[in-house]
Structure formats: C-alpha cells, structure tokens
Write a structure and sequence with these properties.
alpha+beta, about 1000 residues, 7-stranded mixed β-sheet, 8-stranded mixed β-sheet, 26 helices
Length: about 1000
C-alpha cells in the first residue's frame, strides 16, 4: 500500500450510521432485535445490542479498509479461541446468509459490517489507579496473546496502519500538521526524533510476527479478584492486528498504562516482567521498548488532535484526549537511558556497575584517604537531634562540623537522606544521593582522574571521558572549555580563600546527553545507581552508604522471632525513627501513623527522652525498693480516678493489668465466673485471653473458652442482633439470660470485664444506659465491674478522660496500659483499697518493671505532656474534625458503612451492601495496603477485619488529619 493511501486513512471520519440504521442492519442481516447502545471508537462505528438472551457488538467499518484485513481479524480471533487456557476472545458471528462480513451501503456510503459476541467485564481505562497485580495481569495477558499469535499467519496481516510502530516516524510527521498547539507540536517532534534515533540501530534484531497491537486498558475486560481489584482476562477489538515487531505489542500495552501511573514511568515494570516471562524478548527488543513507548505516545497525541479536527463530535476521541496527553507527558519525563536500564533490571538482566567505565584515578592526590570522615544523614543517624532533619541547611551544617573536627569530610554516596524526606506526602521523596558533597581545605589541588574533554558552564565543570562524565562543582578551573585533558593533568583547585574550608560536589554519569539529578526516588534508585555510579574511586576511599538489608532482616526476624508474633503488612517498611505522628523507614520515607495508640504523646518526644535518660542514669530497679517515683506516680493515677478508687497496682502491660483485675475480682468476690462480651479482646495472658472472644485475634476463641468465662451477646449497635436506637433492652436482656443460668448453677459471680467503648469493634459506643443496668445486675450478685480502658481511655476519647464516663458509671476496677507509657512497658490497675486487700490474703504481688523508677518517671512525664500540651483537648477538636471528614466520605462512597467512635478513637467500617452489611473484608485489607503506598499506616480491626482502627498519637495535627482523609478519599475514588 503506498504512503498516500495510508495517510488518506488517517484522515477518515467514522461511518455515518445512526443507531436506528444499525438496528435495521441487525434485523435484516442477523435476525436480531434488542436494545442498542453506541460504543466508542476512533474510526469505526460500534454498537452493542442486547437481545435479552445474549449481547453482541456490531462493527461498521469504512470500505477503504480491504476485506482481507477484516478476514484476518476474524481468523485471529478464531485462532486464539482454539488455544487451551487462552484469554477470553470475541467470537465472529455469521450473518443469516452465512457470511462473516457483509458489504452494504447506507445513505450512499459503502461499508463493511461484522457481528461479534460481546465480552462482559470492566475495562481498565476509567480506573485511575491500577494495583500492581492488575498491571502484571495486563502484561501477562498481552504476552499470552502474543505467544498465541506467534504461529498465526494470514494475507490480511500485511497491511499499512498508522498504528504500526514501524511507521511511527513518517506517520507522526504527517500528523503533526494537525497539531495547532505549537509547543506541543515541538515536543512531539523532538520526542519522535530522539526515539527514532535510539531505535534505528536496534531494528535488525526485532522479531516480526502477528501481533494484536492494541491490548490496552481500553481494549481488555476484567473481573474482580477477591480484593476487588480488576484482573484483565479478556481481549476485544482486533482492528489493529498486523504483522509487525513483537516488542511493539508490549509497547502499546505499556503506553496505555502511563495515565494510571501517577506520573511514575516505572509503574509499567510489572507488566514488562509478566510479558517477558510468557513471551521472552531479546536484548535489542528490551532496549527498543521505551523508544517505542515514546513513539506510541507521540502518535497517540498527534492522531487525537487530527481526529478531533476531522470528527469534532467524536466523544470517544474527546474523552481520551486528556489521558493521551498525560501518557505523552509521562513518557517524555525521563531519560531514555534510565528507562532502558530499569527495563533490563526488571527482567533480571544483571547489570555490571563497573562495565565499560574507564580506569579512574584519584581526583585529590594531596588528600590522604585515611583523613576522610563521613557524615551520617540516614534515618538512623545519631547526629539529628529531635527534628533537625527538617532544617534545609542541616546537611551542610553537619558536614562543616565534621570537617572542622577532621579537616576533610564528605557525605555518603547512595545514602537515603532523611534530610530530604517530606512528611504528609503521597509519594516517596527523591532522597537517594547520586552524588557526594565534600568539605576540605580551600586551594586543594584537583587532577584529572581519566582522559577526557572539558565542558565548562559557569561553576559547572564536566570532564567527558569514554562512557563516563564527571560533573564537578566548587573547583576553580583555569582551563578553557573544550580542551582535551590527560589523566593526572591539573584541573584546578578547590575554591575559597587560603586557610578556609571549601565545598566540592562530585557526580558521575554514563549518559553524555544528561545532566543527572542529585537525588533519586527509592523506587528508581537501582537504575540511577547504574547510570550514576559511585565516585569512591575519586577519593581512594569507600564513601558509599551501606546497602539496605530490610528483606534480609525480615528473614532473620522470621527465623528467630516466634511466628505467632506477627508484623504489620506482607512487605513491611523497616521503621527506624519517629517524630510526633510521623514514622520514617530506612529509605527516608515518611508515614503518617494513624494506628499507634501505644505512642500517646507522639514519637521521639524530647521531654520524654530526657526524663527517661536522666532516670536511667540515676537508678532503675524494681518496686520493692523505696524511692520517690513509685509513690508520686501512684498518687497521680489515683487522682485521675473517680472518688473511692484510690489504690494502684503497677504492671508491665494491658494483658497483665486485665489478668490482675480478674484475679482481684476472684479474691474479692470468692467466686470465679466472669462475664465478658463477644467480639472483645483483652490480652494474651491466660486469664486475659480467656475473656477475649474476638475471632479476628483467635479464630477458635468461641470454642476454647474455659467454663468460668460466660460471653454475652455483643452490644454492637451497628451490626449486632439489635441495632440503632432502642437496642439497649435487647442487649441487657441477653445479659440477664446468661446471669440466670449462672444463678441456677449456684456457683456465684466474680464480675464482668468489658471495654467502656467497644474498641476492638472500631470504637462503637455501647447502647445508652447499657452499663448502668448491667453493672447493677452484676453488683446485685456480689460481682465486681472491671472497665478495660487500655485502648479507649486515658484522654483518647477527647470528650472524656475515661471511656466509662460515656455511660455514666463508676467501675470497681480500672485497667490501663498502652499510651500511659508511650511505648515503655507500663500498665496499671486502679481499684478500691478493700479489693486490693482481699487479694493480699492470697500473697503479695510483684511486677518487675511495672513500677520501676524509669517506668514511673515515664508515666508521670506522659501525664505532664498531656496536661501542658492540651492533648485531650486536641483529641476532641481534631477527632471531631476528622470524624466529620470521614462522615462526608460516607455520603459519596457506598463502601463506607459507618463511622464509629469519638475523639481520636474512631472506626471506619466498610461494607459491600448497606442493607445486608456484608463485611468488605478483603477490600479493607487492600485499602490498607494502598494507604501504605500513599504514606499512611493503617490496619483493620473487628471480627470481620473490615473496620479501619483510627487511633493515632494524640498530638495529631489538623493538617495530618486532613492528609489522612485526603488519602483515604483518593483510594476510594481511584481504587486500590
């Protein structure tokens, strides 16, 4: 086909066939009638017909396309349908006269018509976010289709299409005339020239075979996996099937992913890996992939501009224009060399960092390598005091400080600098150092470490050698631009006055055409590391940061740390630092901690660190010794409790506190039977576990309770047996029924243990007046009432210091822990003196570190901070604001069933159906994983694990609460 015919095709509008005319065609030629809906297409006219019994697609093509091309499409579909295990593919349906293709005229225009079976499923186009399993599945699907077409041949495959990437250069040149936006036109032209330049030497090695050439997010259909994520399993629209480069098939698929990539081109790599695993590509094809993606992006945008001019009412083209522009922007946002490296690394091509580099000598021959000292700017650095890492000048301040002490200091190459982190960011920071900064004596001599040519632009000096460029800042260089330099020849001296300290910045880069960035994002670090290798050789000393070993560390944890002690997330970040409500992993990524009720006053609080350190320096022992802290802390705790609760036990944890509370009830009542609530969690000791009935924490909880434990109906007013207002009586009656059975047995009642707010279910308030009536029934039988305030009490509710205040009751025993020590192992039991004395009849009580001097000082300092910083009031104000934001999400997204709780103990419950309240368990797990990607730590709770348990440090700022709500909104809107 001559180029003139090809270019004429690019200017064709869609067939002018109305829905009414399409209905006539269907009835006359296929004997079908039904509801007709138009489907999008750039140059065809497609209609879906629903007959009630089945659904089909009527495809109307212009006569300018040869019939043999349409025959090839039908044959390709039938070929793939015959392969076992192949993806779903449409079936060509014959007309009533037995023809696969019907030639006809409408309003004097000649067309060719086909009917295909319709594939049910969701396209991926309108899903803004695609999870990695979805991306990988799309690559796998494209690979399987390519493999299936490997042995397919047909005369109609030899065709000229504007989408054939072998013709991308001339096609784009032709289409550019329709681009009226001159800057955009120039960008497309520049991108196409660069792509063709890199592609040209690779083309002889590119495999040619039959390919689909349009397996995109718009041309596949998917079904949801158990987590609600779409997994593509069907391919539609074979209109571009052709004999062309195999790798072009993958390029088309990857280009379509870029508008889902959140501006990160590395997003395509799971698809590349999956395609390559099924349909392996050779080295040249892998190197050609990114230039072809750029070419595809350029043709897409240019073609869209032309088609809008030809067919301005084409809604399909108009709707796709914005995301095609985004595809082009992402494709042209990174260097070709970076993506080539990343693609090779993604498929397991081991890259030798030193390969092709010249022999590198020392840059500073007068500097003894042994004198060089390194700064530590990592997450675990001891040099950052409090939040000094947030000081924009901290790197140079610490570097200068070290240089003052030693004479020569340098930063570390390949270090994830905490100083470049960005709290409250949906993206990981660009903080992987691809360069080094050094402080050393001014006027220090620098010599050329290898042969090269100098390029000088103001203070930026580049020594361009063979396959490597050295970028230098901070050097006084007397040599002219463009001069050839020999290894060992003087380059200049460190800038600065004699006797002062000068600054020097050094960076290597393999790409001659690139001025590399100083930092890379963690996900891009491996590829950039290859392009910008370490400059250690320049100094004759290892100045590299040690590699991160988070995965290996996790393996070691699993070898020696008992398996029942689980960690958050399947692939957890390695958290090594905290500040206020923020956590930081070893890559410097900041996370908003929305789940850590252990850290009440925030991470890294300086007052707490100082108080604990000071007490450690004085004394730490056990509570059988006489010292001030245990007395003072006990007095503070007793003063917080209601009148009459004046006696304190100090223990190590909440589990130990509940365990002790149960033993106190046994001792004081003389009985053993205990009431507890279903769905509750109280701890892991024998007694506290016995009264824990949450099947999320223990799947066998309901069948393994000892006979002295009597679980009563969970008073869950949202999804329990009795719901909403007026549910109190039903739940109280359920308790009365259980008590009647205990009464009948004549074995007495020791008491009841329950959370004052249903914490484990996500902060659901108990029915109004519930505890007043239940406590009265328990006390009538000589039992004691234990309020488990470990999770919900101690100021977290904002509106109340204690959870039991919401019910207007006073318990006999209070258990507290978690936040009262801000991470220090500390818990307490507060009760009446006569109850404590009843326990003494059974012997004395002792807890090694619960009442130690350090624990007591920590506990008092936490209370001081809460008072001085108004943290309970902050919990009320920020909690109310956050709850309002979450309730607003419930008005938009049906998945949000309810928002429970108050203050900074909230629960967001997800359901698949608001009438049946079917728990959205797997969706909740996937949402938590997606939030982690966006910089938020969140975990599910409840028996169905479908509730987000929102319990951050009480210092949570309003901007942090809003960031959490914004990220959650993003997940619910874009997908997970």
């Amino acid at each position: 086909m001559p180029d003139s015919t090809l270019f004429e095709r690019t200017e064709l509008a869609r067939p002018a066939v109305s829905p009414e005319q399409a209905a006539e065609i269907l009835k006359e030629h296929y004997g079908l009638e039904g509801n007709i809906v138009e489907l999008g297409s750039q140059q065809d006219r497609n209609y879906r017909i629903d007959t009630g019994a089945a659904r089909f697609v009527l495809k109307i093509c212009r006569a300018e396309y040869a019939t043999v091309e349409l025959e090839a499409q039908n044959a390709a579909m039938r070929h793939l349908r015959a392969i076992d295990g192949m993806a779903r593919v449409p079936e060509p349906i014959q007309a009533t006269n037995g023809a696969d293709i019907v030639a006809l005229a409408v309003d004097g225009e000649s067309y060719q018509v086909r009917l295909l079976s319709y594939l049910d499923g969701e396209p991926l186009t309108r899903r803004k976010h695609l999870a990695e399993p979805t991306v990988a599945a799309l690559g796998d699907l494209a690979g399987r289709v390519a493999l299936g077409l490997k042995d397919f041949s047909h005369d109609g495959l030899e065709r000229d299409l504007q989408w054939d990437l072998r013709r991308a250069g001339p096609v784009a040149l032709r289409l550019l005339g329709a681009v009226t936006d001159r800057p955009l036109r120039d960008q497309i032209a520049k991108a196409m020239i660069s792509a063709m330049k890199r592609l040209r030497p690779l083309t002889p090695d590119l495999t040619v075979q039959a390919i689909h050439q349009d397996i995109t997010d718009d041309n596949v259909v998917s079904r949801p996996d158990p987590y609600g994520r779409p997994i593509p399993d069907g391919v539609i629209d074979f209109g571009d099937v052709i004999s062309s480069w195999l790798v072009a098939d993958l390029a088309v698929t990857c280009a379509s992913l870029l508008h889902h990539a959140d501006h990160d081109p590395f997003f395509i790599l799971p698809a590349v890996r999956a395609f390559h695993a099924v349909s392996p590509l050779n080295a040249s094809e892998l190197r050609a992939l990114w230039p072809l993606i750029v070419a595809r992006a350029g043709v897409l945008v240019a073609s869209s501009e032309q088609q809008r001019a030809i067919d301005p009412d084409n809604g399909y083209v108009i709707d796709n224009a914005a995301h095609e522009r985004e595809i082009f922007e992402v494709a042209t946002s990174v260097p070709f060399s970076l993506m080539e490296t990343a693609i090779l690394q993604a498929v397991g091509d081991t890259v030798d960092i030193a390969a092709g580099l010249p022999d590198i000598g020392r840059l500073l021959p007068d500097i003894d390598p042994d004198r060089i000292r390194l700064t530590d700017l990592s997450t675990r650095s001891f040099d950052f005091i409090q939040d000094e890492w947030s000081d924009p000048e901290i790197d140079w301040k610490l570097l200068a400080q070290v240089a003052t002490d030693t004479g020569v200091a340098t930063t570390r190459y390949g270090e994830y600098r905490l100083s470049y982190t960005k709290p409250l960011s949906a993206r990981a920071p660009a903080n992987f150092a691809l360069h080094i900064d050094a402080c050393l004596p001014a006027e220090t001599l620098a010599v050329a470490p290898f042969d090269g040519v100098l390029q000088i632009t103001e203070q930026h000096i580049i020594l361009q050698g063979e396959n490597l460029a050295l970028h230098i800042h901070g050097l006084d260089c007397p040599i002219d631009d463009g001069m050839e330099i020999q290894r060992g020849q003087d380059l200049g001296r460190i800038a600065g006055a004699p006797g002062t300290i000068g600054g020097l910045r050094l960076q290597f880069c393999r790409d001659d055409d690139l001025v590399p960035p100083l930092f890379a994002r963690p996900g891009h670090a491996e590829a950039w590391h290859h392009l910008c290798p370490s400059p250690s050789a320049l100094l004759g000393s290892n100045i590299d940061a040690p590699p991160l070993e988070s995965d290996r560390l996790l393996d070691r944890r699993h070898r020696n740390f008992a398996a029942p002690q689980k960690n958050y997330y399947a692939h957890p970040p390695q958290i090594e630092r905290g500040w206020k409500e923020h956590l930081f992993d070893t890559t410097g990524r900041a996370y908003l901690d929305m789940v850590n009720n252990v850290t009440m006053v925030g991470h890294g609080h300086p007052r707490l660190a100082h108080a604990a350190g000071h007490q450690w320096s004085l004394l730490n022992t056990n509570s059988r010794f006489h010292y001030a802290a245990v007395t003072e802390f006990s007095e503070r705790l007793a003063s917080l409790a209601p009148d009459g609760l004046d006696t304190v036990f100090l223990v190590n944890s909440g589990s130990e506190a509940v365990d002790l509370a149960i033993r106190l009830a046994w001792a004081a009542s003389g009985a053993r039977n205990m009431l507890s609530l279903l769905e509750a969690y109280h701890g892991w000791t024998v007694a506290s576990d016995a009264v824990s009935t949450s099947i999320a924490d223990n799947p066998r909880a309901l069948e393994t309770r000892p006979d002295w434990v009597h679980p009563v109906l969970s008073p869950n007013t949202y999804r329990g047996q009795y719901r909403g207002e007026g549910s109190t009586d039903g739940y109280v009656d359920a308790v009365a029924s259980t008590l009647a059975k205990i009464d009948a047995a004549g074995s007495g009642l020791a008491g009841i243990v329950c959370e004052s707010v249903y914490g484990n279910a996500g902060g659901i308030p108990l029915p109004p007046g519930y505890l007043q009536q239940v406590y009265a029934m328990v006390r009538d039988r000589g039992g004691l009432c234990i309020a488990d305030e470990v999770q919900v009490g101690y100021g977290r509710l904002g509106h109340h210091f204690w959870g039991f205040e919401t019910q207007g009751v006073v318990p006999d025993i209070i258990t507290i822990a978690k936040g009262m020590g801000n991470g220090q192992p500390l818990g307490a039991v507060i009760t009446r003196r006569e109850i404590a004395e009843a326990f003494e009849k059974e012997g004395y009580f002792f807890s090694s570190s619960g009442g130690s001097p350090v624990s007591c000082v920590v506990g008092m300092t936490v209370l001081d901070i809460m008072r001085d910083e108004g943290l309970q009031e902050n919990a009320r104000i920020i909690g109310d604001h956050l709850k309002g934001r979450l309730e607003a999400l419930g008005e938009r997204f049906p998945l949000v069933g309810a928002v429970h709780g108050m203050g900074l103990y909230l629960g967001l419950e997800f359901v698949r159906d608001r009438d049946t309240l079917e728990p959205a368990t797997t969706e909740t797990a996937a949402i938590c994983d997606r939030l982690l990607d966006l910089g938020v730590i969140m975990q599910p709770t409840g028996d169905h694990l479908n509730v987000l348990k929102i319990k951050p440090p009480l210092c949570l700022a309003k901007e942090s609460a809003d960031f959490f709500a914004d990220m959650l909104e993003k997940v619910l809107a874009e997908g997970w």
